[in-house]
Amino acid sequence: MHSRTIRRILAIFLPLTAVSVAIFYLLNTTQEEDGILHASGTVEGVEVIIASELPGRVAEVFVEEGDTVQPGDLMFRLEDEIYQAQRNLALTGLKNAQARLEAARTAVNTAEATLESAQVNTEAVQLQYEITLAAARLEELPSRVSSWKQEIPNEFSLPVWYFQKPERLAAAEVEVDAAKKALEIETKNFQDVLEDATSANIEDAERRLREAQATFLVAEDLLNRAKLQNDQELEDFAQTRFESTKEELEAAQKAYDEMLSDEAQEEILQARARLTIVQERYDTALDRFNQLRTGEYSLQVEAAKAAVKQAEAAVTLAETQVVQAEMNLIQAESAVEQAQAEIDLIDVQIRKLAVTSATSGVVRSRNIELGEVLQSGAVALTLDRIDTLTITVYIPEDRYGQITLGDHAQVTVDSYPGKMIDAYVTRIADRAEFTPRNVQTEEGRRTTVFAVALSVQDSDGKLKPGMPADVTFNN
Question: Based on the domain organization, do 73 and 84 belong to the same domain?
């Protein structure tokens, strides 16, 4: 039963195939009349694929199959909600970047103003320094003149002018440092003596004695003043106060003496003497050092000089702040440019959601519907360009050598009887096409054909893709 079915199918298919082949040759192969080469074919247009560069949902379709379109005509549009939201977000970023840019510009102006103020202040401080220096030198003039007449110790063999003032200042400063260190050492030694002198609280006894002496001196001075007033009551009161402080002084002295042995008291006395001498050495060294600090080395000049350095440091800091503010400004400007570029990119994408035709043509097929999600690059519409029409015919092998590129021909169609349309050969196939598959006889070889493409010069736009056409070669 299966074999019978196959035979039935073949019985139907083979006649149909034969008819199809015959129709193909009648429509697409050449005919010869009086040596003129004729051929038949179908008008074809250049296929143009219309696709979106961006993915999205189809919002509108403006063409149908068979519609004629021109360059720039709107074909379809995709929804833009997502892109508009992205644009709003980018616009917010741009506004923020612009605000930071304005802040950066203000910071630059502020930094420049601060720098200018610091420079003006430096000039004023420098002027004040010069005034202070001039005044100090003028004040130093008498002592500088008298120093030439100063007597020097016999132990000095060099003249008074031998060492310059900076050298004497340096030597005096060394003595101050040495005296200060000696004072620190002697102070510690004195504390050690006090601690070793007795187990009792010697410091409390000394403090009591010091305070009693101070109180006694005040009471004594008060009594002397009261005697000058010729007021017995006032004098009696002052005398009573004096006697009381005297008794406290004697008690403090007795307590102090009883606390220490003769040997300990002598040791403390020597320690205090050494401490007093060392303290006086430091004070004297410091006084002599300060006496030398006159003129340009005076404290006033040093203070003015320090003010100049501080002002110059402020200028340096202000210059650094200006540089930093300018760098921040450059970064802010770059951020604005970047934010604007993002908006420009989104605007380009939004414009590309509205897909237009780049050429004139006829809509052959429409592959999209409203609401469909279209992927980027997916075929949405197919156009046939009507400004560039072609016809492909097939030339038998024995006439192949008679056709060359650029040969002219005449095209006619049934829709416009008697109208001749110019065409010229643009391509000749370099390989033969034949049916059946194996060609052994001379007759079979005559059915071997070569494809020839012609460009049709249809300036009136009469022809449409798909129209059957006859071609007559002008050879």
Answer: no
Q: What residue has token string 């360009």?
A: 385
Q: Do residues 31 and 133 both lie within one domain?
A: no
Taking residue 320's Cβ as centre, other Cβ atoms within 10 Å add up to 12
Calculate the alpha carbon distances from 196 to 193, 250, 259, 264, 269 in Å: 5, 25, 13, 9, 14
Residues 402, 400: Cα–Cα separation, whole Å: 5
DSSP code per residue over 90-123 = HHHHHHHHHHHHHHHHHHHHHHHHHHHHHHHHHH
Which of the 8 DSSP states describes residue 45? E
Q: What is the pLDDT of residue 61?
A: 96
| Residue 212, in any domain of the structure | no
Same domain (yes/no): 188, 317? yes
Query: For residue 186, what pLDDT is reported?
Result: 92
Neighbouring CB atoms inside 10 A of 424's CB total: 14
**Does 164 lie in the same domain as 271?**
yes
pLDDT along the chain (475 residues), means of 10: 41 43 43 72 89 95 92 96 96 96 96 96 95 89 73 69 83 92 92 68 80 92 89 88 91 80 72 91 92 86 94 96 96 96 96 94 92 94 86 87 90 91 92 58 63 88 86 85
Is residue 250 situated within a structural domain? Answer: no
Residues 137 and 28 in one domain: no
Rg (CA), the chain: 60
Together in a domain, 297 and 175: yes
46 and 117 housed in the same domain: no
Query: Containing domain of residue 105, as a range?
Result: 80-198+260-352
Q: Which residues contact 175 (CB under 8 A, 6 or more apart)?
A: 285, 288, 289
